[in-house]
Amino acid sequence: MALHDFINCFFITKRNFDCSFYYLGRKSMTISEFLIIPAKPEHVTYAEQICNEMFESAKARGTGIARRKPEYVANKMIEGKAVIALHKDGRWAGFVYIETWGHGDYVANSGLIVNPEFRKVGLAKAIKKRVFELSREKYPHAKIFGLTTGLAVMKINSELGYEPVTYSELTQDEEFWKGCQSCVNYDILLSKDRKNCMCTAMLWDPVDKERELKEKIQRKAEAKERLERITQKQSLLKRIEAKLWKSAKKFVAVNFHKSKKVVKEF
């Protein structure tokens, strides 16, 4: 093993140990202790810390990531195209930003990161949900997609309605794919002719979701109509049954009196 690889391995192991020790020693936290809001210009002071943590986290996981500069992240905050989570004591707890491609036809929620000090609380899911809502508010007609190697993120995406797709269904905007150049897996992406890589592609399509919603509403309407028809038939059968029972009782009563009369005469 080369010396620099050994050093990197040592610091990554130490960092993970320190985080694990912190989890054991801290008091239990709840999601109510955090403010999860669209980022504002006043939050740019966190940009460098966030970028450093994005890089360190990816290195610790041994996965690739398109590295962003603090200026890029700060600009997202200024534009209101990001969501930040803050602990009640003022420390940054999590972050994610919005990118648009293909003239706004596609939206990506990128760079999801949670401060190691605040993991295991459910922040990733809450941040993802809030940036998804913000994306829908800003770009209601856009397809929202993501590329990730993280199983936790895939699970969150699935809960939000994302579907696994092939790379061909993602934006073909060259600027998006240029962002992958700083990823350690970029050579793999090129060797696969950009058809697949280590990341799983997931997509939320508003057209598909609208169609699914209409189909769901239609199915409910049809089920309601069937239930109403069944109820009407049951009501009709009950009325017929009651009428037949009334007629039967009348018939029995009349014939009973007739038979009694015949017996007396006999």
- Helix segment tally: 8
First-to-last CA distance: 122 Å
CATH H-tier superfamily:
Gcn5-related N-acetyltransferase (GNAT)
CATH class: Alpha Beta
Overall number of strands? 7
Question: How would you sum up this structure in a few lines?
Answer:
With 266 residues, the protein is an alpha+beta fold.
Question: How would you describe this protein?
Answer:
With 266 residues, the chain is of the alpha+beta class. The protein has a single domain (3-204), classed as Aminopeptidase (3-Layer(aba) Sandwich), CATH 3.40.630. The protein contains 8 helices and 7 strands, in the order αβααβββαβαβααβα. It has helices at 3-25, 47-61, 70-79, 123-138, 151-160, 174-178, 186-191, 206-265; strands at 34-38, 82-87, 92-101, 106-114, 143-148, 163-164, 200-204. Helix 2 (47-61) crosses helix 3 (70-79) and helix 4 crosses helix 5 (151-160). It is elongated. Residues 3-14 and 20-25 have low confidence and may be disordered.
Secondary structure topology:
Elements (H helix, E strand, L loop, with lengths): L2 H23 L8 E5 L8 H15 L8 H10 L2 E6 L4 E10 L4 E9 L8 H16 L4 E6 L2 H10 L2 E2 L9 H5 L7 H6 L8 E5 L1 H60 L1
Parallel strand pairs: 4-5
Antiparallel strand pairs: 1-2, 2-3, 3-4, 5-7, 6-7
Helix pairs in contact: 2-3, 4-5
